[in-house]
Amino acid sequence: MLSRVANSIYWLGRYLERAENYSRFIDVNFNLMLDLPPDLKEQWEPLVFATGDGQLYTSKHKGFDRKEVIYFLTFDTDNPNSIISSVSFARENARVIRENLTKETWEKLNELYHFVLKRAGKKDWNREDPRVFFESVKNQLLLLYGLSESTVARTEGWYFRQLGLYLERADKTSRILDVKYHMLLPSPNMVGTPLDFLHWTALLKSVTAFNTYRRLYGTIEPDKVISLLFLNKYFPRSVFYCLVEAENCLNKISGGSNGGIRNSAENEIGALRSKLEFADVNEIISSGLHEYIDDLQVKINSISNKIDANFFQIKDNFASQHSNQE
After folding, report:
1. 211 inside domain
2. In angstroms, rounded to a whole number, what is the distance separating the alpha carbons of residues 269 and 272?
3. Burial level of 187, CB count in 10 A (0-12/13-18/19+)?
4. What is the pLDDT of residue 321?
């Protein structure tokens, strides 16, 4: 497979997952606002920092008004991570490698792009209930995932797409957990109150983990939430699960599953996966969750850079080594 094709497929996976995460984060946060006490300030600031766009937002806006935050995270084309930017970048990557996609995948992605673009062009977009829009975006993206799952052959292209998806998912799960643990509560004396319960519930819903958590653990306890979102081996949005799947994708791409490490990206993701595999949630909390997550995100970024160096920043003689195409 040509390195430029692999690069486009990898980023197609990342951008689609990013748009799906943003639509869910905003939808859940909007519903949370409806349940908060009327005298409590709406907490849109943590959402901006959870997406990693705080510096860009504060350079353009003075406060964290709901309308401005939703616009920034959804329709602001100056924000490279907004929903409209992510969907646009995903569509452009898909267009470049159109012959590598199924007809159904391209049609649904193109349909999603025009749906978001049309809504962005409405001057009165904020007068309607935004939850309907975000629910629709999320459902269309999940439909795209289902189409890929059912129609795409498990060749090299598939594994590049899944690799991008799982790295993006691991990053976003860790970010939303970090922000909840350090920013969402108004004061320490709110811990254990109904308001605290609302925030932890919103966090779990932000990663579609609420029902799973209740079945596994019952009552909401911070250490158990962290255990589910970080270390669980079976929940598809836990950081550990995502790293295992990403490592498997790398192995499939490079042939490393036959034994031995083939490149620096596999080496680094294997080390991070192993660290989480034997981690203890109480040790993570006692040593500092924020610091632990910071280190994790640095390592995920490093893995992404090494994937880029090993597979995308090379001559197209990569094609002679890897001949399968999606």
Report:
1. yes
2. 5
3. exposed
4. 40
Burial classification of residue 150, based on how many CB atoms lie within 10 Å of its CB (0-12 exposed, 13-18 middle, 19 or more buried) = exposed
Residue 255 has phi, psi (to 5 degrees) of 85, 10
Instruction: Say whether pLDDT at 2 is over 80.
Output: no
d(CA 138, CA 59): 29
Q: How many helices (H) and strands (E) does the chain have?
A: 15, 0
* Number of domains the chain contains: 1
Q: How far apart are CA 106 and CA 100, in angstroms?
A: 10
Asked if residue 326 is part of any domain, the answer here is no
Q: What tokens were used for 80? A: 């490279």
Task: Judge whether residue 258 has pLDDT over 60.
Answer: no
130 is written with which tokens?
């935004």
In a domain, 113, yes or no: yes
Q: Give the range of the structural domain holding residue 253, as residue numbers without chain letter.
A: 3-321
* Cβ–Cβ under 8 Å, residues 31 and 131: yes
Taking residue 78's Cβ as centre, other Cβ atoms within 10 Å add up to 10
